[in-house]
Amino acid sequence: MSLLNLPYPILDCILKLLSPMDLTRMSEVCTFLRDRCRSDPLWELHMKQKWGGVIGDVAYKEWLWHITTPKEKGINQLNQHNNQNGSMGPFSGTWPMLYLRSYLEDCSYLNSSSLANSFMMALYFSLENGNFWFPAQIYRGLYFRDALVRYDSKTDNFQARQQNAGWKIMGNNIQWDKLRAPPVDTLPSVRYVSDCLQDLKPGDHIELQWKSSRDIPYDWWYAVIGHMESCNENENFCRCRYSETLIVEFEQYPLGSRMRRVKLLKNGDQCEESTGCYGGIRKLYSEEEIQRWENILSRGMAGTRVK
């Protein structure tokens, strides 16, 4: 029996077992298999399997912009508008004035018949080939920092850039476990609008935006909500969650440090020269996220603590 005569459900099960390269070869056999092998649901499986931990909703939105713009404006018009190599804008300007929040080094192949109508397949190979610089967050010591990242297939690692008087190289050979997809769709220069402030209580795990001065982007730090000084920490009588003030405890700082235990107002910015600027708060509900932070802290504490 020919492969083409198989019932669709059985054929799809077979195609799901193929590697990305085998799928690509299979798509060149005939028109029917081309459409089947390049379908978004099929390539979404490969995207999740390889890139799911580092690619998030923000990156998908960026990619949608890149892949639809050539169709709307025409690839030749875009090339003339940008630069000679057909890239979607240069590494210049200030965040986020870099054609949204990503960078595509070469957009000419998006006009080819093989990838023009294959959203997920085109994204997969743009990532694999290192053409697509996508938004991600990099683990830096004891916090996560926003960056633009691309994959290097030769080393199976990543290269990252950050906006600092131009898009400077932030690091090379960055390993997979140092990256994560941005958990919220908020620019690093913008204060995150928290939706959990009234529900926070002692013992809750959070991520908090912090930066050392007003004119730089925020980083994301891990902390735990603590008890007010006036509280006896008895569950039955604790009223800390009803206070307009939060006690935030940074376990990465040693006991006795002025940064170990910080008092923050639930509403309004808090920025001082001596302590830096605190932004939005994101409550952690996932045990996986909490465990990752605890692993990071344990590794950091085994080395040198933040002072």
Molecular structure report:
There is one protein chain. The chain is α+β, with helices and mostly antiparallel strands and 307 residues long. The protein has 3 domains: 3-37; 52-180, no CATH class; 197-302, no CATH class. It has 8 helices and 12 strands. The protein has helices at residues 8-16, 20-26, 31-37, 40-51, 57-73, 75-81, 119-128, 287-302, and strands at 103-104, 132-140, 143-152, 157-163, 167-174, 179-180, 205-211, 219-226, 245-249, 261-265, 270-272, 276-283. Strands 1, 2, 3, 4, 5, 6, 7, 8, 9, 10, 11 and 12 form a 12-stranded antiparallel sheet that branches. The protein is elongated. Residues 78-87 and 92-97 have low confidence and may be disordered. Residues 1-46 form the F-box domain. It comes from Glycine soja. It holds the Pfam family F-box. This is F-box protein.
